[in-house]
Amino acid sequence: MTSPAFVTGGQRTVLQLSLMVNFFLLMALYSGVLGVLLPNQIAALDPGNKANNLALMFAITSIFSTLATPIAGALSDRTRGPWGRRAPWIAIGSLIGSISLFGVSWMTSFWSMMVLWVMAAIAYNSMQPAMTTLIADRFTPETRGSVSGIVGAGMTAGLTAGTFVAGHLAGQQMLAYGLFAAAIAASCLAFVLINREPSSAALPARRFDWGDFARGFWISPREHPDFAWAFLSRFTIYMGYQAVAAYLLYILRDYIRLSDDASNVAIANMAMVTFVCLVVTSLASGWLSDRMQRRKPFVIAGSLIMGCAMVAPLAAPNMSGMWVYAAVIGVGYGMFMSIDMALMTQVLPKSELGEEGKDLGVLTTAVNIPQIISPVMAAVLLSLSGGDYRTIFCAAVLFVFGSALCVLPIKSVR
Q1: What domains are there in the chain, each with its CATH number?
Q2: pTM reported for the whole predicted model
């Protein structure tokens, strides 16, 4: 199957910036909702069980997200129509997700929140692989480092901005949820109108067989070892990162001993420190990576720096340690995220069937699965240690350092 033509000139710049804005808003939504709004809402409903309920929310949501991502990616590969293969998933997914997300703000019970947030997560995770695959569809391999750097800067900036906005709007629940929902829906609709994808109507339709469709999600580590190592690297780094990020609000309250109001402000201000560090690092890393035509050194360095960041609160269990964490995690995470996406597009199995969406969807599960396991792991560690948050930081350091080791065996990318 022939891929859509690679973009050049002004069209390339517009698509690049549009992807950055979309991923900025999507990551802002994830960080604001998962890191601040849902934890506050859950804590208000049942303060005594907040950690366990938060872990349960993340685990159930991530199960559905993990299934939705590769399936949606595979179905987008098969989509035929005048709007292309990816655009319908981006537009429809953003609308369904945003309606469901705004509904969460009206809920007054844990399980009603769960249902609507799961619906939102499925919709958003159905559009995300379509957006990611556009990097493989529309940009040449030689330019994907700078593209990944710009998009990565948007993603990492979004993670910070979302936390900042949600932290300051935590007391205005409906406004906060509504702002995130409206922003991503409007951005995605504008995206598909401005960046018209080539029609896929003339592409040959593929025969659908349930057995072949299901078997297609298995990518043999023996036949594609680089893909397997990239998957494992992503999985381990997010196991460590999510363990801390998911409980950051509770860490500020129960480990650093801040009040509820002070912790909401602190998490927002920490996000601004992270923001400055990660934007500079993301853009610089993407430019250097393309200039040097190297991906692995940047991903490895980012992983090691993130591990160092997580040592800071262990050495200094106070706000000074948290400020160091906020700055250093921005440097490491910015470097990792800016190049990780480019590396992922270059380890995909070669296929004549145009299965990039499915393969990138499988790689995205390396982010979603830790969202299932990591909060549960953290809750178990807290339970076994009597609420000692140092155990979470120790586990996170091991996982993040392990990610750097998983990148080393990759041979097809320098």
Answers
A1: 9-198+211-407 (1.20.1250.20)
A2: 0.70
